[in-house]
Fold each of these.
Amino acid sequence: MEMILAAMLMLWGNVSSANPDVTLDQLVQASMQVPAHGEEFDPLRPVFKKDPQPDTPTIRGIYVTAHSAGGSRLNTLLELVDQTDLNAMVIDVKDDWGNITYDTGNSKLEAYDTTYKIIPDIQKLMNTLNEHEVYPIARIVVFKDTILANKRPELSFLNPDGSLWANGKKPPESFVNPYSKEVWDYNIEVAKEAAKAGFKEIQFDYVRFPEGFEKRDSILQYEQDERSRVEAVAGFVKYAREQLNPLGVRVSVDIFGYAASVPAAEGIGQDFEKISQNVDVISAMVYPSHYTTGWFGAKVPDAEPYTTISGSSVDTHKKLEPLGPLKPIVRPWIQDFTATWIPGHIKYGKKEIEEQIRALHDNGIEEFLLWNASNKYTPGVNYINPSP
């Protein structure tokens, strides 16, 4: 009994350091909970979860590239936020190629030689955002990292001939290995610097293996252990939140929209529930253009934004319901672009964006993020409660 009590006190010390409001009684009660009959114990499930920023307003934001944040387009985007009910910006701190987009002054990161100073003065940017009452979110692209993969191939995936694997896109992209603890710590170091700079939330994107990885897993060379791909990816998310929560920043993750509607995507290592239970915010990319024929009964989901977003919202609620108090804030990415490559697509403007927002609202979801890769957003949109 004394050994059990000592172990409990040690665990309480670890938990309470990251969650000061947790009591020993709460920990004891949590430790006595056992999985329901037929359920397996989930080592990735946190004991406690508390929003580090409970007073944050309802977030409605836009995506902002580092080039926009560090250039003249920022003024246009600030004007949009100032004149509407938008109040947040998701800014690339580590972009889709793996560039750290401003000079952190961190010697650990400088040793990787992956900084490309796109944002000339991070403190000036943060001061400007604060003046305009913009909630700043740092976007960090995690495992899609062509730059680090080229500099450190041993942290990536190698073809049978020893060359670096890349996908078939133009230009080709490479990923780094989600099993690698060094890769984990590298990205979390970037996140800690973003928190130090003043970002209030860290949003991790590309938290997965490459698409179609299960088809090439057996021929690629890379370091791995006994964990499944799902466990490796969810393990990173859990570790990241444990590292960042004491800094007072929220942790969020972007995830494929269809992940809420299907079983775990084991090929790429994404499990909607296992990731969601370890984040403060989950941002599914529910762009109607990303769904194929038949989803939610729509022949062309892109042409039926209300139907598609409503269907994905219902599935999201169903998927997250079992998490109970561990359920994160639901803040999807929605579409503010026209998907010209989709047969039967429609042009997206004020009406189509408002239909997506109305679908979220009708399903009890008040938060959202708008995506447009070029950061050109539709004017005149009612972002609060658009009429049918």
Note: Residues 59-371 form a domain with the TIM Barrel fold (CATH 3.20.20.80).
Amino acid sequence: MMEFISEFTNWTEGVSGSSTTDSENLSSAVPGALEAAGISRGDWMQLMAQEGNLSSALPSLDLLGGVLSTTSPGPLQPTANLTNQFVQPSWRIALWSLAYGMVVAVAVFGNLIVIWIILAHKRMRTVTNYFLVNLAFSDASMAAFNTLVNFIYALHNEWYFGANYCRFHNFFPITAVFASIYSMTAIAVDRYMAIIHPLKPRLSATATKVIIGSIWILAFLLAFPQCLYSKTKVMPGRTLCYVQWPKGPKQNFTYHIVVTVLVYCFPLLVMGITYTIVGTTLWGGEIPGDTSDRYHEQLKAKRKVVKMMIIVVVTFAICWLPYHVYFIITGIYQHLNRWKYIQQIYLTIFWLAMSSTMYNPIIYYCLNKRFRAGFKRAFHWCPFIEVSSYDELELNVTRFHPTRQSSLYTVTRMESMNVVFNPNDDPNSKSTRKKKEASRDTSFNGGSNKNSKSASTSSSFITSPYISADEYF
């Protein structure tokens, strides 16, 4: 095929200075020549661009679909008149490199610290936090393995990383994004069940692991076509990495629409509905039941967690919306890929999408005191970071232990039982027993008696139909 391209290039160069009529005849003869040589129109477009017979164009580099398409060919031009409009000055490349490097650094280290905070402290190992571990792992992996690689490819329009990494590069982003957003969806559903149906059984550790495993399996299945149809093409002057679908660009565009629905529209719809119901319940009025201080403490904790997760979801939605819109529009109007400023627009939109991987640790730090204590502990070596005894207690003291398969939580705490000793009372008399029982009831309700002597009791166990505040991180 390369021999044909070489001969075809010489042929076009020989007639490039001919009249307009000759050029039109040449254009009409191209499809027949391509068909006779067994070369698809898309391959011809890419190869001829390298030979200098098509005006330079930027491929649509889709993180969720490889190269969606190349731009449609413009009129044939002499090689001497061609310039690459997407070559950037050094200062602009340096600024983009700094911006993308910041995203990768914050996303990787921030999410790794989140994982450490949860896994290294028993108090943090809750159902919600296990899903946050999955979310953090997905974001860190995306930033580490795909962000800079895609940036370099978009910047230079040259694939430097080999055929195997090309398959991984087109396969893993869909997997990671799917795992991220469905981890958030699982958290939303779990919060919905915990708050709207508090008496129904909660997720066990085993069920949580099964859900996380199922999320990754579905993610692999959705992204598998990207791996199957990925290929590299070595061309004069550069190498391309893209996805070549059997039925061409239309099939690729259809796949991208399916991916957009599954990893953006549908989960956001589910989370929108669940958090609307939960928000109405938490902020719209009191939940029927206990009106004690413990109840209000739990209600306040629930509101904080729901507020934090809503911010996480909204941030994700804002960051990824321009990305999906961009590829839908350029998939329909492919001539936009030849626009002078399209590369800068793509790099901006892609940076915004990738920046979603670095915001979550920042949100956790700002809105959750236990994650804030964990970050302080992780950076305790910094001279301006001080870990207080309160921070240590936030991460290490565990007082609330959830019973298995139940929303009723066993609360363990040391109580003080006040017993009034009267030497004139007979220990076996009814009045003495009544005094002891009354004193015990007062102690359990938080009362005290300054004139009484105190005796320590064994741990008492009480149950509450509401989830303890500790369950919310």
Note: The chain has a mean pLDDT of 73.
Amino acid sequence: MLDQFDALLLARIQFGFTVAFHFLFPAVTIGLASYLAVLNFMWLWRRDEAYLQLWKFWVKPFAIVFAMGVVSGITMSYQFGTNWSVFSDRAGPVIGPLMAYEVLTAFFLEAGFLGIMLFGRDRVGETLHMIACLMVAVGTAISASWILSVNSWMHTPAGYTVSADGQYLPADWWAIIFNPSFLHRFAHTVTAAYLTTAFIVGGVGAWQLLRGRGANRAVKTMFSMAMWMAAIVTPVQIFLGDSHGLNTLEYQPVKVMAMEGHYQDHPEGAPLVLFGIPNDAERRVDYAVEIPKLSSLILTHSLDGPLKGLESVPEEDWPPVAIVFFAFRVMVGLGFLMLGVGVWSLWARWRGTLYTNTWLHRAAMVMGPSGLVAVLAGWITTEVGRQPYTVYGVLRTADSVSPVAAPAVGASLIAYIVIYFVVFGSGVWYVLRLLRQTPGPAEDDASDEPGPIRTAGITPTAQVAGRSAFKGGPAE
């Protein structure tokens, strides 16, 4: 049966499936790592038990999601050798060192301090533990920067030369790393991760409030912090998205044509298509709901700004228009819903009903997973919009695939689907179970419990007896 499918299509589906799974985990851990660092800092500064309770509540889901992100990233990277060996051979001299730098700097930094962050609160002192929290948060951001540099180079390649055998060789590392779309993509993606975390935290806090746990100060603090992030960061993200869109128009105009649904040229101003159904055969958007000239105003800052359409490009260079068109609208629509929740929370805060407005809580709970859907829609818009190229304008996807048979790719795809849903499904289920709990009182200091004996000459019996005597126990 698998012989009926094309190996290229199956390889694309497999990579899309695995990277979609993987992308969701860092989207959470990047934001959660910073959130945990802020919570720890607030606890050390104010000595408010609510912050410590929240840190202990969120650190377990963070650890599990972090582990799932590492595992999913490793399995995804193998496909560069199995399904995309031609791409790896051609582009390896450029992207290989960048991915190695991510491991040598960011991943080792995270791994080195993660254990101290998770288990060292009562063992290494408050200062070193705070440094560990910061290093893990910084490590996640550095990791994102290297990976997004690789991805951005594939969209806007720069700083390379081509060898006689067709390999892309680095000529200017600064131009490669800081390629034309890198800073825009980095700012937009990392901010999306922070928003994703904010709405997950806000959704959990809203659920706790709806369950009648409003008397818990930690729950109220959780919800309040998340709503501040929603109100402040969402407008910033919309601005960053607009900036990224203008950069895409400059370097990947065909992607913008697909996003906007512009089949025809618009020399005197293009409409903004709010909704419709792209029709490639007729080169139009059926049932289109449009606002005249608004697309030109957004993209050129002029109502009469001319915009090219897909008709100006050979059809073999078009991306899958319908996928890009709808994914872009899902991302933008969710962004404005996030903005609405943020503004609503400001109104409720001003009215003094932030913790009692059940309709706001219901909305925040429903919007809890919205960040995950939005980042996935944004990734689809970006990556499918790059087609039919792996390295935009340079290397086509059809020329990047390994010489493998469709049944081999299909069999591994089926294995990935089964294993991913079993392993990561179990992990997500356990995280959801953890989030059903309520942040409770801080646990007793670990130093009050019998533990490993580190000092020569002291036996466990003597140590326990000494502690019992100090506490007025049996040794008295």
Note: Residues 442-476 have pLDDT under 50 and may be disordered.
Amino acid sequence: MIEPVIVVVTLLGLIGIGAPIFLALGASGLLGLWMARGSIAFFFAPTSFFGQLNSFELIALPLFILMGNLLGATPVGKNLFNAAALWLHWLRGGLAIATVGASAIFGAVSGVSVAGVAAVGSIAVPQMLERGYSRGLAAGSVASSGALAMLIPPSVPFIIYGAVSGVSVGALFIGGIVPGLALAAALALYIYIRVLLNPDQAPLETGPAPSMGEKVRSLAGIWHALLLVVIVLGAIYTGIATPSEAAAFGAAGAFLIAALVFRTLTWRTLGAIFASSVKVSSTILLIIGCAKIFGDYLNLVRVPEIVAEGLTATSLPSWAILVVLMLALVLLGMLVDAVSLIVVTTPILLPLIQTLGYDPLWFGIILVMNLEIAVVTPPVGLNLYALRGVCPMLSVEEIVRSIVPFVAVQFVMLMIFVLFPGLSLWLPSLL
């Protein structure tokens, strides 16, 4: 069985020299197919690539990305933070907790964590620093809560996992609600306890308390986007529309909000939004298609079955195997981007998960919770660099140090949902 070793070494070598991840996956998978089946591999590989992308549900991917980019061109992120800050004015650490709430809601609007960090962080961090919040609390609250966009629907990682695994994207969206809200609550609780024990980290607001009228008026700048998200997700959950159909409606609605309500669209802005959406979507789709070539090779030589048999033969209890897998995924997430981690590990690990008797839907939720840790841990943690980009007053070293306790909270929540699968499955079972 020297061929799989050659294929894996080729994959790691190409990644190591800086080759695009789609090229590394496609080339190593094609090499493996050629070693296993000869020249027929050159017909088999394109078939795998096209078959993976020939999916109606994948249409939702570029449409939700377009929806998020259109709303990202509006002041929705700023308005969300301002509204949350007004409503939590009375609470010590209220600005940091407001950041968590604003990021969670913006995650439902955009579905992309980096966009949430940029939109909320550019407003939240300067305001927190101006009011005497510690730099660590300001940076950590933004970077960690931005990752909620990966779990709270509509989530791009859920769409990718659904395409690779065959699990219903609508069911994944429903399953992400409880873990997403629980993680947001855990981050907010940690902030509250932290400032309670160390009041110097977040001084109480000294200005006059906002009136109820000011609080209500602050909602005027966000209700359009929130209503759009409720309609889009409601259409999916009630079965009125598929995720792809709802995504099309969401993109059209986001265009109308940006063009008619906020009037932030110009021809140049619109062109930049379309260009960015096409670039991001095509990159992800290329990775998904090439990963199918690599995954088909692994299935051809029975790598998933061998891994499953090897781990189950250890006589370890299933929960112990799961903990080992979660630790391995966290470590991999520090080195590989989120999309690549989904498309590479799912074909290998999903058969093992099913052998252990767990639901593929649950595994998709747990995998995305892992990715939330991945995007805030160096060296690949994109949220860290996105925050540095919009907040140049913070150094990368400061941001990395600030995220450590928040990552610990995320990992504790991950373990809770790993050890108690019913917590994430009860809502999908009801709907």
Note: Residues 128 and 138 are 6 Å apart (CA to CA).
